[in-house]
Amino acid sequence: MAEGWGKALKKDSYDFYSAGIEKHGQNPNAIKVMAEAGVDISNQESETTDELPIQEFDYVVTVCGHANEHCPFFPAKTKVIHVGFEDPPKMALAFDDEEAKLDCYRKVRDEIRTFVISIEDHL
Question: 25: alpha, beta or left, given left = phi > 0 and alpha = psi -120 to 50?
Answer without folding.
Answer: left
